[in-house]
Amino acid sequence: MPRATTRRRFLTSTGTAAAAAAVAPQVQAAAARNRPNVVVLIVDTLRADHVYGDRAQTPNMDSLVRAGLRFTRCYPEAMPTVPARNSIFTGRRMFPFTGWFDRPGLIESPGWAPFHHVEATFTSALNRAGYFTAYVTDNPFFGFARGYRRHRRSFDRFIGKGGQLGTVAPLSSVSSKELRHWVHPATVERNTYLRMRQYLANGDYWRAETRSWSARVYSAAARLLDDAKTRQPFAMVVDTYEPHEPWTPPRKYLNRYGDPDYHGPEPAKPRYARVSYLNGYDAPFLLRRMHALYAAELTMTDHWIGVFLDRLHRLALDRNTVIVLIGDHGFQFGDHGWTGKIAAELHPPLTHVPLVIVHPEGRKAGGASTYFASTHDIGPTVLAMCDVRAPDRMNGVNLAPLFHGKRPRERNYAYGGYANYFYIRSDDWALMGDNRPGGLRLFDVRRDPAEVRNVASSHPGTVDALLGQVLTRTGGRLPLYPH
Hints:
- By secondary structure, the protein is an alpha/beta fold.
- It contains 13 helices and 16 strands.
């Protein structure tokens, strides 16, 4: 077991990196020698209010918040899983998803497509600058889909931990009793039992959390640090699919959030639907139970992040490492009347994610920024902190000036989209709708922070101005694809 988080220290003195990898050209090695290492932690389905707030216990993520600069208004410009990661790796806006068509091995939804310019990712740029690069993930798309093969091969070391999707273990290994325990009757829809049986067979971690995907990913990444230490500077992306649903956490985590005396069927895989599907059941209880399952899964994931961070600290690598924590999207637990990830409901429970950047010299430790940050800012920022030129294709903002008391390029809005829907947010307003554009809804976020009252009809000028910003910045027209 790792040492307790309270014993972990993020040292603030600047260290000197070890010699660059022998395979790098001598001139690159000389330039790279004094550059910091990079660790980017991508956590799937990570709501900001569960890291910055008290809705879940995340002591290891909290340690990063204390050590770094947190961005209180980070909104992914493209969602969900694949579009968000495209944005992170390329440092480039993915929305709107112009020219999209369905690809094998990916979900048939706008934005789910591999990026073409693998040489223009931030990790490829660091590799050319003499960095040893590594990617550790259980993401079923980035880790295994054919379209991302070139991306995986762009790293010096790729470690894929599969299992959450696909068949790894025989379905017969899951008993009917276990299956009924993790499927609540209210959540059953087509293929629910098959999907859950497959999931349970591949990762029966409710009995032993070392079998969880977060344990597999972060343990592998922790072991890889020993090799990375000898090949500094290094850049490592650790990308876990947990706490993406279904949620089947060990009881020791679940009992922190839910009734320990409850042993009935669990709503481990909610529908992506209006909460009316819970009619006829105790809907408030089931929504609370869904949240308890998610929070438990998140706390378990945080524990294994701690395993990795402890190893980083024991090897004294935190002295000279830029650390980034980022989520790709959130999840709705009855928020605005829905459960799941609903593309039409681009409110903060889905669109607001944590972004924390830890400077190796401890600059801005424990600080907060209200700058409208987004996923495509990570690449330019990391490269700037490593003194590596960003590829010309990157159009994200370099956030590094904030560590020196300066402002990045002005950005008065956060905007982006999910499938056939868009959103835009300013200090005062939030507008969302579909890409026709239609179904426009406007919220006064200062007077109505919960975004309950649609005031579009009484503020047509504001609607036109915000929509105009989106259309101007996206080329004048949003693509609309058949459902």
